Amino acid sequence: MPEYLSTAPVKGTRDFLPAEMSVRTQVFGHLYEVLESYGFLRYDGPILEQAEVYERKSGQEIADQQLYTLTTRGGERLALRPEMTPSVARMIAGNAKSLSFPVRWYSHPNCHRYERPQRGRVREHWQINADIFGSDSANCEIEMFELIHDLMGALGASPDTFAVRVNDRNLLSSALTDVVGVTAEQLPQVFALVDRWEKTAADDLAASAAEIGLADKQFEKLTETLAAGPALLDELPAEVKENSNLVKVLSSSAASLVRFEPMIVRGLAYYTSTVFEVFDTSPQNRRALFGGGRYSDLASLFTKEQITGIGFGMGDVTLMDFLATHGLTPSPRSEVDVVVIPVDEQLADAAREVATSLRRAGLRTSTPLELRKLGKELTRADKAGAAAVVIVGQEDWAAGTVTVRGLATREQQQVALAEVPGVVSALLAPTA
Amino acid sequence: MPEYLSTAPVKGTRDFLPAEMSVRTQVFGHLYEVLESYGFLRYDGPILEQAEVYERKSGQEIADQQLYTLTTRGGERLALRPEMTPSVARMIAGNAKSLSFPVRWYSHPNCHRYERPQRGRVREHWQINADIFGSDSANCEIEMFELIHDLMGALGASPDTFAVRVNDRNLLSSALTDVVGVTAEQLPQVFALVDRWEKTAADDLAASAAEIGLADKQFEKLTETLAAGPALLDELPAEVKENSNLVKVLSSSAASLVRFEPMIVRGLAYYTSTVFEVFDTSPQNRRALFGGGRYSDLASLFTKEQITGIGFGMGDVTLMDFLATHGLTPSPRSEVDVVVIPVDEQLADAAREVATSLRRAGLRTSTPLELRKLGKELTRADKAGAAAVVIVGQEDWAAGTVTVRGLATREQQQVALAEVPGVVSALLAPTA
């Protein structure tokens, strides 16, 4: 047994110290605000769910290898949620009678997966989840794509730094069947092949296609089809296109927000038509930032009612990487606006009185807990990002005044007590 | 295996649907704001910690009966944190060199304890933790008590609905030894007895005191001492009082904020001098809402450096109960400020254009995803708490106008597109 335990967080988890937490609070605060500007309502749920939920429904890799499970003293087999979707499906199913569909919901949970440690992979990550439940309309797709652009815009991302790549699995099915000549039996395997298309060398793809039983000509046609972009639509049957929300999007005002890419599949099993991913277009970081899709029956574990919808999950690790790559990470906020410094401990009560009046005016205000020499207190206030200090001296205090000093200007002025909040606020105003 | 899984959350955990989440967001948002007005900085940490942390340091009841533990595929024995203090001690110890003490930190974690189900007990609860690390000064105590009053005030609690009951364990030790005549050997047992004093019948207390070996006279004196309040200070040695931060508080401007109660102990092992609890004074809910205290060596598991401080943890269940008891629970926020309704689907793009302009003006704006008759849309907008709807009709749109309708006033007006955000904002203004 070591004398002292390690101060490192458990492998794959992270501590968020105040400076980093301040950055995160700003980033996610912007996202909350945009989501709420569309009428999305925040919800939350427990970290623990019945293990069975994930064993029955999540991908096999999650259930077999990535799930954190435990058995309670009462004998319940529980798991730390690896994703939010089953939890929200449970909540929607359990409250369907009192909800007025469609609903827009979002949350910001932490999720656990026992990942092999590698760059950009953590075991506890935080994820924004946003979903519209209870509507099949293409208006949902259009809103999701507008929302994504506004979310990225709120983080400072210019439209050339990312692309929203979209597809409809039904269009892809039709293309594979009607254009490439894939059989119904081969279809699931070809889908899996398409899902790893962009991450796999051409030789390996060809070998896999041959293994599935595609002829060389078919592999060529497949390659061509996946690279066709919007031109592919001309080759697809009219009735397939009529039933596609994506085709409706592509003829709406939202067409300019997305890029139709027939090779986008998204691994998750529950997507049934529209799928999309937001892609970082910078040369050094070309990868999916986050993605989502439409599902036709989300809560089948919990209810016979079919609950349809569309949603996405946006993980914090890739998002913060994206912001760093593009120089968009905000600075931590200052710790306080103003520090009130008594010249000696006898004036501590007086300093607290001034601090209270500043707080009532909405200013973040601290007073020294361990009083040091004035010079040291000024340095410390400067380091905390304060815009001003208020110095409380014996004679001034007796006369009903204090000294206000701007830390940028280094100018001092004697100020009557009642005027202090106004004078300090003016020093805080931008470009003051 | 049941056909459908239960939609109830795991026992002892809670779902927070949007209406409840909105209430919580407001309540905790007020608390964050007050904490930040004092210069407290928010941090966060992982849900999972090494199980050993709690087995070595937390109370025996937690480690033996209440800890949720699991073993990972990699063989690590982990636990879901039952409290935040060991995590923050780890972080402070690991970052002590780069921190400029004293520091004010707060967080809002969820914590897990396998409690027996009973009223007001949950297994996953959310807790505000606030601490000052690295100072022994009585200024910390004073600030904590001012902070607590401001936190309660921000929730709307008037000063007569709660009391901050305070004690110093060293004063109690001295009182027990010097006034009651308790021996050093008896002291821990008498402390444990005092800790359950208020929840235990007088007969049982007398029997326990006799078991510990106190004479009847001593038990009488003990009863008298614990009820003495501030008068007890007159009976204590000067050197004990000189070293007590609490005695300093009682002679400062903060004396009026607290009530000295010699029987307050607080169960947790790591408190070493000042202890306090915030008590609900309403007749129907007389109980501690939350509490905290001062510790002289918080991070001894992780470092040989002595880290002192003072802090408290404020759980959500008792807090929300308090607000409900006193009629202080805020109403859920409206879902949107305004709904933009196209009269038919052909105008959906036009409605989205208007919605975008409203969002840019800071208004929370939705458009129907599944368009119904205007009357139904108006009812739905009203239910969502919107202050206004904007109706987009074919001829109006061609003329560059829309109809704005106030849902409270039921008055309609034709408005040119550029004026819409201004007109809707005016309808939203309080008492407009």
Keywords:
homodimer, 432 residues, alpha+beta, BirA Bifunctional Protein, domain 2, Rossmann fold, five-stranded mixed sheet, 17 strands, elongated, histidine-tRNA ligase activity (chains A, B), HisRS-like_core (chains A, B), protein biosynthesis (chains A, B), aminoacyl-trna synthetase (chains A, B)
Q: Give the oligomeric state of the chains in this entry, treating copies of one chain as homo and distinct chains as hetero.
A: homodimer
Shape of chain A: elongated
CATH homology superfamily name of the largest domain in chain A: Bira Bifunctional Protein, Domain 2
Counted up, domains of chain A total 3
Strand content of chain A: 15-25%
The secondary-structure class of chain A comes to alpha+beta
Query: CATH first level of the largest domain in chain A: which class?
Result: Alpha Beta
GO biological process, one term (chains A, B): histidyl-tRNA aminoacylation
EC number (chains A, B): 6.1.1.21
Protein name (chains A, B): Histidine--tRNA ligase
GO molecular function (chains A, B): ATP binding; histidine-tRNA ligase activity
